[in-house]
Amino acid sequence: MQIREATEIDFEEIWKIFHEIVSAGNTYAYPQNTSKEEANRLWMHLPRKTYVVEEEGQILGTYYIKTNQGGPGSHVCNCGYMVSSKARNKGLATSMCEHSQRIAIELGYKAMQFNFVAVSNDGAVKLWKKLGFDIVGRLPMAFNHPSQGYVDALVMFKWLET
Amino acid sequence: MQIREATEIDFEEIWKIFHEIVSAGNTYAYPQNTSKEEANRLWMHLPRKTYVVEEEGQILGTYYIKTNQGGPGSHVCNCGYMVSSKARNKGLATSMCEHSQRIAIELGYKAMQFNFVAVSNDGAVKLWKKLGFDIVGRLPMAFNHPSQGYVDALVMFKWLET
Question: Distance (Å, rounded) from C-alpha B60 to C-alpha B21?
Answer without folding.
Answer: 13
